[in-house]
Amino acid sequence: MTWIELAVIVALILFQPEVRSLFYRMRYPRTVRFLRRVPRIEVAEEVVDAVDRLSRSSHGAIIVLEQEMSLTDYADTGTELQANISSDLLVTIFTPYTPLHDGAVILRESVVVSAGCILPLSQSALPDRNMGTRHRAALGLSEETDSLVVVVSEENASISVAHKGRLYRSLTTLELREILGGQMPRHTTADASASV
After folding, report:
1. Cα separation, 56 vs 186, whole angstroms
2. Which of 14, 149, 162 is nearest to 71 (CA)?
3. Separation between Cα atoms, residue 51 and residue 90, nearest integer Å
4. Fewer CB atoms near the end CB (10 Å): N or C, the chain?
């Protein structure tokens, strides 16, 4: 093996997330990439209802909606459920001190695939020092995949969404419903690397 071939292999290993993201961008033009797989209205309503209840109870949560890119590798880090989505199930999973409340839930179409999943942490600087591991994990996954990641803050009960390396913060349930319906938020967004 020549040193050039070795250098290419090392570069691919070191920059795997960036290479995956590049191939994804080449496959799906920017104009059609916001949400390729919009959840059915019933699914979106179950998610919105769960997020609203979790926020009002100040229970932290991280809910991942798979789009075109498979999240099987991340789902395998958690406990397989393969259960129909319901707001009651999502609220139960994120109730403090339950076995699965400390990880992410991954949704595929109308199914809760797994819970307690481990996500990659973003290395970008967060726009707010009060934001914790959930937000960093949401951004990390959104930087590597096309998934839509909903976060409920345990500290201040705020609702955020991470998508394509951007964080949409302090959302209302109406804005969350619009995002799940495929509409970009109307309010100002912040890059993960932006400062407050």
Report:
1. 23
2. 149
3. 8
4. N
130-137: list long-range contacts, CB under 8 Å, 24+ apart.
Answer: 130/155, 130/156, 134/60, 134/61, 134/62, 135/160, 135/162, 135/167, 137/62, 137/104
DSSP lists the bridge partners of residue 63 as: 105, 150
* φ, ψ dihedrals at 106, nearest 5°: -110, 125
- What single DSSP character describes residue 190? E
Give Cα separations from 109 to 27, 48, 131, 139, 153 (angstroms).
21, 15, 28, 21, 24
Q: What is the pLDDT of residue 41?
A: 81
Compute the mean pLDDT over every residue in the chain, rounded to the nearest whole number.
82
HSE toward the beta carbon, residue 149, CA cutoff 13 A: 32
Question: Is the model more confident about 79 or about 41?
Answer: 79
Beta bridge partners of 135: none
- Listed in sequence order, the DSSP H helices in 3-120 are 3-14, 16-27, 41-56, 72-75, 87-93
Residue 45, number of CB atoms within 10 A of its CB: 15
pTM, two decimals, is: 0.77
Give the start-to-end residue ranges of the domains of the chain: 1-33, 34-191
pLDDT digit string, tens, across residues 89-137 = 999 999 999 989 889 999 999 999 999 999 999 988 777 776 789 999 9
At 168 the pLDDT is 92
pLDDT of residue 23: 53
